[in-house]
């Protein structure tokens, strides 16, 4: 179970621009955008894992890397600004529950990042996740929600309706060079089709 403390880390990635969605102090505490701390990997060998995220309407076709928690307890972030990261401590995309994928926004030196246009998604837009077995799961955007840096975001990591969900996380708002974090987090909530 992910606590409010864990949510704090997600902020680092462009949800954190760089780091991620699970940590201690507050929901969306963030790590440096330049170099994400190494993640603790928890591998599941019992079935296929996600390898590609496709969002046609915003031209995203990104590799998915598995991530866990950083040594400080935050959710990890993808190493490359063009990739996304699946949080392995939750369900796989397509399984019952809320699978969480984060990606960068507003990368340094004005380089493009995978979720730079995530905010343009609308209810009804489709997102596809492909896995290592060649299977695809399609999700339909239900809503976009913005969270403040100290706001409880535990609903991003859990659901109790017995359905499969995919929640995409990135940063939003104003960059603070002192804290090396954005002021807000954007979450796209999507449901399996």
Walk me through what this model shows.
With 193 residues, this protein is mainly beta. It has one domain: Beta Barrel (Sortase, Chain: A). The protein has 1 helix and 8 strands, in the order H-E-E-E-E-E-E-E-E. The chain is globular and about 40 Å long. The model is unreliable at 1-45 (pLDDT under 50).
Throw out a few tags for this protein:
mainly beta, Sortase, Chain: A
In a nutshell, what does this entry contain?
With 193 residues, the chain is mainly β.
Low-confidence stretches: 1-45
The beta-strand count equals 8
CATH-level-2 architecture = Beta Barrel
Could you state the oligomeric state of the chains shown? single chain
As a percent range, the share of strand residues is: 35-45%
| Termini gap | 25 Å
Helix tally equals 1
Describe the global form.
globular
The CATH topology turns out to be Sortase, Chain: A
Q: Name the helicity range.
A: under 10%
CATH class membership: Mainly Beta
Task: Name the CATH superfamily classification.
Answer: Sortase
Strand order of the largest sheet: 1-2-3-4-7-8-6-5
Mean of pLDDT: 78
User: Main β-sheet: number of strands, strand sense, barrel status?
Assistant: 8 strands, mixed, barrel
H/E element order: HEEEEEEEE
Rg, Å, rounded: 14 Å
Could you say which structural class the secondary elements and strand pairing correspond to? mainly beta
Number of domains: 1
């Amino acid at each position: 179970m992910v606590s409010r403390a864990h949510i704090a880390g997600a902020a680092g990635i462009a949800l954190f621009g760089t780091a991620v969605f699970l940590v201690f102090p507050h929901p969306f505490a963030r790590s440096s955008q330049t170099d994400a701390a190494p993640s603790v990997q928890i591998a599941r060998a019992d079935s296929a894992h996600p390898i590609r995220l496709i969002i046609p309407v915003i031209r995203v076709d990104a590799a998915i890397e598995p991530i866990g928690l950083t040594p400080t307890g935050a959710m990890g972030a993808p190493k490359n600004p063009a990739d996304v990261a699946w949080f392995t401590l939750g369900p796989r995309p397509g399984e019952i529950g809320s699978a969480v994928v984060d990606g960068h926004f507003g990368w340094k030196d004005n380089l493009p990042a995978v979720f730079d246009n995530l905010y343009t998604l609308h209810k009804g837009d489709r997102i596809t996740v492909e896995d290592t077995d060649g299977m695809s799961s399609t999700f339909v955007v239900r809503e976009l929600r913005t969270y403040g840096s100290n706001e409880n975001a535990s609903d991003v990591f859990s659901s109790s309706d017995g359905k499969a969900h995919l929640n995409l996380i990135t940063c939003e708002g104003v960059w603070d060079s002192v804290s090396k974090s954005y002021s807000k987090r954007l979450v796209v909530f999507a449901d399996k089709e």
